[in-house]
Amino acid sequence: MNLNQITILSFDTRTSVRFYKKLGLKLIVDALPRYARLECPDGESTFSIHHTEDLIINKGVTLYFEVENLSKTVLELQEKGITFNSEIKEQSWLWQEVHLKDPDGNPIIIYHAGKYRKNPPWRVN
């Protein structure tokens, strides 16, 4: 089994698409303003945005996007006008991460974990 797509809800799909394109995702399905699907620049995952009039932010769901060079990515995104809610932080689980929110308030973490994403020293065998 492979997780290949996540769909989020948005009040304003056009604004959300512009935001996620700034993050580096590529628009591959344009049925705006109702729906859009974007492709992650690495791997095979896709990401969809579906319009809603009744948005409830689920505080239990966070979107994670992994990059190879977090410092470089943060600088590039700041140059594009992306605002972060935190500085880059070294986490105790051996990841570097930075936090932000999308236009609808969905929490996002951009991070670098490298080998530790699937193989931390405490991995169960």
From TrEMBL:
Identification of the protein by name: Glyoxalase-like domain-containing protein
Stored Gene3D superfamilies: 2,3-Dihydroxybiphenyl 1,2-Dioxygenase, domain 1
Annotated signal peptide: none
Coiled-coil annotated spans: none
Domain of life, per lineage: Bacteria
Domain VOC: 2-113
UniProt cross-references to Pfam families, sorted A to Z: Glyoxalase (PF00903)
SUPFAM superfamilies: Glyoxalase/Bleomycin resistance protein/Dihydroxybiphenyl dioxygenase (SSF54593)
Listed PROSITE patterns: VOC
